[in-house]
Amino acid sequence: MIRIAAANDFPTILALNAESVHFLSPLDETRLRHLHAQAAYHRVVEMEGRVVAFLLAFREGADYDSPNYRWFARHYPAFLYIDRVVVARAAQGQGLGAKLYDDILAFAARSSVARLTCEFDLDPPNPPSAKFHQRYGFREVGTQWLGGGKKQVSLQLREG
């Protein structure tokens, strides 16, 4: 079941983020509370009473200091930025990421948002994410290096 994230989900969301932090930026409770308040879309997948995945996304104008979000804010006047999607390791391979993407696409359509944006790692490479986003019609519109040249990301756009 996909539902809106609530404050009582935060400990699990933080644990899921920590489990995948090598692909994401770190989160602590204070930052998560701030991002949750700024989010246009913050949903979780619950299975058997446990949160096993989440997706966090922002519209333009959010108070968010992510260099990737800021890149899109400089290049597009209106967009929905998918900041992070995380599926618990134990729940991977069940299509939960796809279900969350299907849900955010429906949310974007209901909200009349034509541009969805996101990024994934090029260096170190993340081929599963590249393949996943290609299936959803995303295309590269830029790249940037982060962390003092430790990581390069592909900045992705899906219009429609």
Report what the structure shows.
With 160 residues, the protein is of the alpha+beta class. 33% of the residues lie in helices and 34% in strands. The protein has 5 helices and 7 strands; from the N terminus they run E-H-H-E-E-H-E-H-E-H-E-E.
Concise structural overview:
The chain has helices spanning 10-19, 29-38, 67-75, 96-110, 127-135; strands at residues 2-4, 41-47, 50-59, 80-87, 115-123, 139-146, 151-159.
Helical coverage, percent range = 25-40%
Give the quaternary arrangement of the chains.
single chain
- The separation of the N and C termini measures 26 Å
| Main beta sheet strand tally, sense and closure | 7 strands, mixed
Which fold name fills CATH's third level, the topology? Aminopeptidase
- The ordered string of helix (H) and strand (E) elements is EHHEEHEHEHEE
What CATH first level would be assigned? Alpha Beta
| Uncertain segments | none
Write down the overall mean pLDDT: 94
